Protein 1
Amino acid sequence: MIKILHYALGLPPVNTGGLAKQPENIMVRQVANGNEVSLVYPGNISIDRELKIIKNKSFNNIKVYEINNPISATLLSGEHDPKVSLKHMGFNIYTDFLKTIEVNIIHIHTLVNLDEEFISAANKMDIKIIFTAHDYFEICPKVKTIGSGVKTCTECGNGEKCVICNR
């Protein structure tokens, strides 16, 4: 039995489409194969902005955890204040969480709202990480690759035009 933690945007019915369905299909199959599977997803932002990881109700024998007050990312309008949204939130909180659930491997399905300290904590604990991209966020923070002026972006100029688009 392998203990697998998935990082994705959430589960149906709250999240729909391929970003939710593909990780769900993988997790359900892993449970059917006798593995212990958990999901952690970026959740709500509260006024206190204190990072917390809370256990939610299980889904199809998948343990579900929510990161309250994750780093934030705007999916369609780019990032306007990276100093706030990419603020380091709590290496020790992620380390404690990973120690508690004792996973062997982490499967990351998206980089949206993923705190680099989560990855740093996993690396420090020698937890293997797999990454698969199910969206365009890794290529373009606007996800839809829509350039400034609401035109489809066809040439990013090695990222130079991304700076203009994300202002």
Note: The chain has two domains: 3-75+82-135, 137-167.
Protein 2
Amino acid sequence: MKTSRLAALAAALIATGVSTPLAVLAQSTNPSIPVGSLTAFPLIVQPGTRPNLTWNITYPSIVQDVVTVTQNTVTPKQSLYVDVRVLGAGVTVSQSGSTSFTFVPTEAQVSYNGGSYGRVFYGTNNNVNPNTIVYTRLVEANKPLRFGGRYYHNSKWGPYFNSQSGTLNVRTLVNGQTPPTTYPLHTAPTLESFIRPYLDAQGKVKIGPMDVIVFMELTHTDSQRNDQGYDLQDMVLLATFRTVTTP
């Protein structure tokens, strides 16, 4: 229990029926805002009276509170729901003598708790709808989620990479981290438009507090990381975690 001029003013506003937005005490970035309650006694404030204020603020969780995020794997610390969406599939090819590029079919896969990798998406970037959940399930503590992908061109599959390939082709990041590309991704000439909403002006990942973004590089190997084409946007997934009590 604390009192201050600001608190007394809040109590006075409550007493007169004027609501005080709790957001003034909150972070400015949605949806990462605290929620809480504020009560005052007495409710009717007389001149010279100092009201007693009681408040409770619950700060939002961040995904690192409930999962362990390593270089390419996400492991829950408790039972959670996960929803996976495809943000983009950026593998492109150009015809000989042409300066235009065409998206080619790309496959995304997910593995849970050491199981086999199963397809959750196959198509070109033109088939991507970031609002569509392509994979959802209840995940339990200490049972990891892993990711994989590959592309299809000229009637054959390109190289296949997943979280267990022993390479840097699959990377999992959270809000505020910087994509580990040799050249800054947000200023790269190869930056795909579907990535822009998820990077801030400094090139850091800009996603929700309960999100993990999965970047995949499917056309280059680790030895080609200095190539500008190594941009980790050949397949990009967004995994959103919810507690089991969240509807």
Note: Residues 7 and 31 are 25 Å apart (CA to CA).
Protein 3
Amino acid sequence: MLGVSREALQRSYQWSPEVTDAFPACAQLIDRFLTLHRRRYRRLASLHVIWFKVIGAIEIVLSITLPLLFVVPIIRDERKNYVFLAVVSVVVAIAAGLRNFYSWDTNWRLYRSQEFILAGLVAQWEVSMLQILRANPADAQILALDETAVVLTRLTELFDHENSTLFNAVVPPESVKKTVRVAQPPPAP
């Protein structure tokens, strides 16, 4: 796995202590922006996958059993059996609606991929810092800040991608109404 363990995420810094000692300001910037977002992405991905699996399992199981319930009535009273079938049908519809509305599978993939990308950014940053440290140039602090700025710029691009992915998926009701009106033929005279 490209990410790190939960224990490592609980620690403040997930990189070499020598990087933190040599470039404390850069380490604080990376920790403040990247590490907190990695924790957020991991938490959100875990929540979304749980909801996706639970609601999906409910939808699948009830969808499969619904036709069987029509053929093999569970309740002897016919009226109560119809009510039971209606309730099961409504639960299936609610589960499908929730799954489509919240897009747990799409968001789970987005958050998990964002976490992996952040892990890669941290690793690239750490390698750059170690290379600067090993080269021991006179302007090491300036080079370290420049590399940190590059990583933070890429982080901003990543957040822009996340925002556009999440908010472009939202379709305002007005645009749906316009699409429906355009698709309907005009009334016949």
Note: The chain has one domain: 17-155.
